[in-house]
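Students often ask why we bother encoding 3D structure as a string. The short answer is that it lets us treat folding as translation between two languages. Here is a chain of 525 residues written in the first language.
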Amino acid sequence: MLSKLFPILEYVALLSMIFFQLEPRIADSNNMVMRCIDEEREALLTFKQSMVDKYGVLSSWGRDNDKRDCCKWRGVRCSNKTGHVKVLNLRRSDDENARGKVLKGTISPALLKLHDLRHLDLSNNHFGGSPVPEFIGSLSRLRYLNLSCGTSLLKVPRPFQYLSGLVYLRLENSNLFSLGSLEWLSHLSSLRHLDLSYINLTKSSDWFQVVAKLRSLKTLVLRSCALPPINPSFIWHFNLSTSIETLDLSDNNLPSSSVYPWLFNLSRNILVLDLAFNSLRGSIPEAFQHMVSLKSLHLTDNELEGGIPKFFGNMCSLNRLFLPHNKLSGELSEMIQNLSGGCTMNSLEGVSLGGNDITGPLPDLGGFSSLKILILGENRLNGTIDKSLSQLLKLESLSLGRNSFTGKIPLGTQLQSFNASVYAGNLELCGLPLANKCPDEESTPSPGTDDDSDTLEDEDDQLITLGFYVSSILGFFVGFWGVCGTLMLNRPWRHGYFNFLTGMKDWVYVIVAVNIAKLQRKFRN
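And here it is in the second language, the structure alphabet:
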């Protein structure tokens, strides 16, 4: 029997040895499991030496026994199976970046020894204007790369085109003065998120053709890139990816002819569209109605004319419609009616129409129960503020300033909680939070009273105060005589109550005396 078991035990021992070899290393001290691989720990420490770290961002990195496991270092994450470093995230927040609490220095090529690195984020640090190292293009397993606001991308390193598995690329605000052809991007076939904002692409005349080849792209952000206009002949040969869900081409001074023809080819899947600060002219195109999934539309600071088309009222997913600082005109009541004609009234959370030429009174808005943002300032609106505004309980941001509203601001908790600047510039508007009081809030002073106590609101305050005192006095008498009167009239209860107090007094006295005696004995010893 033993001879039969021996081969089985031998097999189990062999498997155990193999498993032990595959397991992560064991630290010399405290017998704790340490996943960190020696070569990668040394590579990270070499990277640290190339950094200037005044604020202790990398203070957890070191060779001390309690710091030897690099998988526990700040910004480092390792694979649970292999122990290889998979994530290096040393991103600083925008606030830390503004206050200069960042890493400085140069990016060391020691990162090449992180053979399984998938995620690299060094954004919002200051690397002294040093260019993006070419070796980053050799990190073939990289899926996520964010170097925004930290490097000087004088040119895109040629090896970048070999990062074919890259899914996320953000080089925003990389101190890049100008960049030529974007042909290298077309090799990043897996790219789903691309952000080149604040990089000068004036000379990148092929940007549209290149982006059109990225069939997996879902988010494209090219904000303030000085994009050159699209050649109309290219539009019919290159269809921009219909997979795009977020598109931000704001602040590029693009004309309508460069945007509309291809924009509506990708319309059905798009969720967020930002075309603010461009040169879009004319009325809002009817083709927007085909964007059935659209949640947020930003067309701020263009030269759009006319009103709000009726089709917006049937865009059931739309929750933000921002059209400020255009040349929109017409009655506000008609625009609101177009928005409330269908399902949009239930989904809309933000409307911004400020800085246009819209006229008329403020209509009933009570049906827009989800509204959180309402910007109507700097128009030519008039009349009184409709009471329905006080029913918008979710309202967080409001602007009605620089119009011609008159009368009293409706009473409503949120309407009085806004700063007075929300209503500024309406000279005939009165009521809280404005200092300008309405006529019905003022009354003739009575003899022996101060002017400050003559208003209707102060009289309400006096009634409330009187009621408060009356109820307090009644409560005191009921409570006091309810207890004391019972003890005075009921002899057994009275005896029991005083016996209880006497017993408590004796118990406290004994406890205190015993503890004092113990302390005295302790000090004598």
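Translate back mentally: Residues 12-32, 444-463 have pLDDT under 50 and may be disordered. Keep this in mind for the problem set.
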